[in-house]
């Protein structure tokens, strides 16, 4: 699709959607677009939010969920939201760096969170609220953070130590931090849309990738990757966002009901993410198509040491004060590695 046609289509959708909030005779329609499968944590949570929104507003709001890139792909969806062609998204946190809010790339730093408890101190605390507020000047209102899970490396050769990824073409999202991460491992970062990854792995365009188990399993990447190392080296999460003009234009009582629905959906999202990643890892093991390696404490420490320089390299980009605030909140001490 040409850019001009894409923009035309977005604008047409935006214009047609503008009066919805003001029409008393029909429900307010929220188009919620995402790029992953419907049975992933994000897909399930989007459906949960749609149901709760309908219940709490007594049918005043209808949330239409469009998964698996059926409306927009990775590179299109944020522009579509800003134009009002779609009202709600849950992009991965790596998407906000290219949008101009580089602070969100703190979540891409390898091994900055050791577990969900440390992570939630940030996403559910003052730091998280401050980060969401930085989206407002972009015409975007941040509503919540949703977990997906911790990422692990996969490839067609064994991954036991950092040097095993040397020279490998590794698919990443568009993120300067993730590029630096792969370079620290002497791998070759390859930015690619999520919808293109399976074919790229299958044909050898890329050698490997990094994903939480729910993405690896639902997208069937394990079918075209012979080896998986449970490195849990990085976090993949989402920010649920909405077009600011649309959100501010909602009746106050409806907006309050939707905020409650989002709070409920966030609790559900974080619970189902942990459960589904555990379940999908077992499914990958049972498939017999991918050899699964759990690093020893020594191997995990080797990965941490290899990747820690990325923190220092990216500190000026992300913000040194923000980085130190996260360290303080989670108790992370780089000097102990």
Describe this structure in words.
Residues 1-24 form the signal peptide. Keywords: Signal, Transport. This is C4-dicarboxylate-binding periplasmic protein. It is a single chain. With 337 residues, the protein is α/β, with parallel strands linked by helices. The chain has a single domain (3-331), classed as D-Maltodextrin-Binding Protein, domain 2, CATH 3.40.190.170. Helices cover 46% and strands 18% of the residues. The protein has helices at residues 3-17, 41-56, 74-83, 96-99, 116-123, 126-133, 176-184, 197-203, 213-218, 244-248, 252-287, 297-307, 309-318, 320-330; strands at residues 28-33, 61-66, 88-89, 140-155, 169-172, 188-191, 208-211, 227-243, 291-293. The strands form two sheets. Strands 1, 2, 3, 4, 7, 8 and 9 form a seven-stranded mixed beta sheet that branches. Strands 5-6 form a two-stranded parallel ribbon.
How would you sum up the major sheet?
7 strands, mixed
**What proportion strand?**
15-25%
Helix fraction by DSSP (H/I, runs of at least 4):
40-55%
Global outline: globular
Number of helices: 14
**CA gyration radius, whole angstroms:** 20 Å
Q: Could you tell me the number of beta strands?
A: 9
Distance between the termini: 48 Å
The H-and-E topology, N to C, reads as: HEHEHEHHHEEHEHEHEHHEHHH
Quickly give the structural class.
alpha/beta
């Amino acid at each position: 699709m040409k850019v001009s046609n894409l923009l035309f289509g977005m604008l047409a959708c935006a214009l047609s959607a503008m009066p919805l909030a003001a029409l008393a005779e029909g429900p307010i329609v929220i188009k919620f677009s995402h790029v992953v499968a419907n049975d992933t944590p994000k897909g399930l949570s989007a459906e949960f939010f749609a149901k709760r929104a309908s219940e709490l507003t007594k049918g005043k709001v209808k949330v239409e969920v469009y998964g698996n890139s059926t409306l927009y792909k990775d590179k299109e969806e944020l522009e579509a939201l800003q134009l009002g062609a779609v009202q709600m998204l849950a992009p991965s946190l790596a998407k906000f760096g290219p949008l101009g809010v580089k602070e969100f790339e703190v979540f891409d730093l390898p091994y900055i969170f050791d577990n969900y408890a440390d992570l939630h101190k940030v996403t559910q605390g003052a730091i998280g609220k401050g980060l969401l507020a930085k989206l407002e000047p972009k015409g975007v209102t941040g509503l919540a953070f949703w977990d997906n899970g911790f990422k692990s490396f996969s490839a067609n050769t064994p991954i036991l130590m950092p040097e095993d990824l040397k020279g490998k073409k590794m698919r990443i999202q568009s993120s300067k931090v993730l590029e630096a991460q792969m370079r620290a491992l002497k791998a070759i970062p390859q930015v690619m849309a999520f919808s293109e990854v399976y074919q790229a792995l299958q044909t050898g365009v890329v050698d490997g990738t990094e994903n939480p188990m729910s993405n690896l399993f639902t997208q069937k990447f394990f079918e075209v990757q012979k080896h998986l190392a449970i490195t849990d080296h990085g976090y993949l999460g989402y920010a649920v966002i909405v077009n600011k003009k649309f959100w501010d234009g909602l009746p106050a009582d409806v907006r309050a009901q939707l905020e409650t629905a989002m709070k409920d959906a966030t609790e559900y999202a974080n619970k189902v993410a942990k459960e589904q990643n555990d379940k999908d890892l077992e499914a990958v093991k049972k498939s017999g198509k991918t050899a699964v390696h759990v690093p020893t404490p020594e191997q995990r420490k080797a990965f941490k040491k290899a990747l820690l320089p990325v923190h220092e390299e990216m500190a000026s980009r992300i913000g040194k004060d923000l980085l130190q605030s996260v360290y303080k909140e989670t108790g992370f001490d780089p000097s102990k590695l």
